[in-house]
Amino acid sequence: MNKLVLGVMASGRGSNLQSILDAIEKGTVPARVSVVITDKPEAKALDRARAAGIPAVCVNRKEYDSRESFEHALIEVLRAHGVELVVLAGFMRILTSVFVQAFKHRILNIHPSILPSFTGADAHSLVLEYGAKVSGCTVHFVDEGMDTGPIILQATVPVMEDDDHDSLAARVLVEEHKIYPEAIRLYAEGRLTIEGRKVRIDRN
Ligand code: GRF
């Protein structure tokens, strides 16, 4: 089977990037990462990419005067590296339709809550403030909304009475590192079909 070409975009630590690289290395995901892009020069994800021998590119948001020109630069790098599927792994920027249309139905994101609840940049704090008893994570296709695209996989974890932001985030992260590589595998094997809001998974 031909390997799916991934472009991973991240803003920080890059632990999800690492889980994807590890799964590829183990042979469970028929894909390869052709480029890692960050919007910040200090993002640790760049070091992880370099350590794996993968081109690491910073498209520094601060060097662009509009979201559109920034996104055109991202698209250019992704196309130059032959990217077929864009994987957002802690990429902390909302993408406009310029980007979303350029890779229509070919962008995945992971969000650390059970969508559609607790969207946005600080899901764990919202979960704790609300008093929810379960949380988790969601891998979804990206559309023009914030955390609104069709859902591929979700995993849940309990919220404990003595949880703080970091303890909850750590419990959710363990699940993120399982379901993101799994969702990419399903995509790479051609097992996902988008039907309106729903994603049908062919598990045969
Ligand atoms: C993860 O919790 C992910 O769900 C969210 O941002 C965080 C990124 O973590 N979108 P990392 O950079 O992959 O370690």
Mean pLDDT: 97
Question: In which order are the strands of the major sheet placed?
Answer: 3-2-1-4-5-6-7
Any idea what the CATH superfamily is called? Answer: Formyl transferase, N-terminal domain
**SSE succession:** EHEHEHEHEHEEHEE
Counting DSSP H or I runs of 4 or more residues, the number of helices is: 6
The low-pLDDT segments are none
Q: Tell me the total number of β-strands.
A: 9
- The helical percent reads 25-40%
Q: How far from one another are the termini?
A: 17 Å
Report the sheet-strand fraction.
25-35%
Notes on the structure:
With 204 residues, the chain is of the alpha/beta class. The protein has a single domain, classed as Formyl transferase, N-terminal domain (Rossmann fold). The protein is 35% helix and 25% strand. It has 6 helices and 9 strands. It has helices spanning 15-26, 44-51, 67-80, 97-102, 123-130, 165-188; strands at 4-10, 31-38, 56-58, 85-88, 107-111, 134-141, 151-158, 192-195, 198-201. The strands form 2 sheets. The chain has a 7-stranded mixed β-sheet, sandwiched between helices. Strand 8 and strand 9 (198-201) form a beta hairpin. Helix 1 crosses helix 6. The chain starts with a strand and ends with a strand. The model has no long low-confidence stretch (mean pLDDT 97). The structure holds 5-O-phosphono-beta-D-ribofuranosylamine. 5-O-phosphono-beta-D-ribofuranosylamine (GRF) binds at residues 10, 12-16, 89-90, 110-112, 137, 173, 176.
